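Example record

One chain of 263 residues, shown exactly as stored in the release files.
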Amino acid sequence: MKDFIADGWQQILDGNGLDSFEALWALDTGWFEAPNKRRGGWSGVSRCDLEVPGGGSVGVFVKRQQDHVYRSPRHPLRGMLTFAREFDNLQHYRSLGIPTLEPLYFAVRKVDGQRRAILVTRELADYASLDRCIKYWQAEGFPDMSQRRELIALLAATAAKLHRHHLQHNCFYPKHIFIGDEDGRADVRIIDLEKTKWRLSKTRASLRDLDTLNRHSPGWSRTDRLRFLLAYHEQRHVDARVRKTWNRLVALMRKEGRSLLRP
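Predicted structure tokens for this chain:
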């Protein structure tokens, strides 16, 4: 796979002494997330600030891994490096207009028989995970109704766009959905795309993700959840599709012994 460097970033990397795969691999800034040792190898994340021409800096995440692979029918023996899969999904999401991270650099090397990969992404400055926002709202109070409606509609529209393309995020937890402001308007970004997969059935893709989000969104009222499904199906009033999705989510919750309204 050919090395990827986003437009304008070669100069920034060079200016910070990170002009090669080897330099990025040797970067010593401590671990933002302790290395995950599994899948026959390891994978870890670091964070650093890079100086940019003209002054100032920008935060980036540097993800490094060695022999950290997943296997599938397409890659049954050697497997595929998980960052290669994540990079492919980042590019695919962006080509479809699904909001996610901005990849800055990706490359793979084989060193002493071991496969290594580096993925660098731009930090979502001034964004916070939905999980963190929910915890804050539970302690300090939820946004007013108009802001709440705007956010729910945006979340629903983002999820709907994902599923229209038969994509299942597969880990659609609030901690993987980031919220921020873009030109004064609420903005949403989806991260952690490693496990995204294409599904023949849009319904199958959507139910897995919607069930995950529904089960891990405490503080949402019955009305909030209904508003989400109305926006997801682009309806102003409950119709057969909205009712069917609602009933399926209720059934999944009951199967696990939970209530749809459990806080």
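Notes: The chain is about 35% helix and 30% strand.
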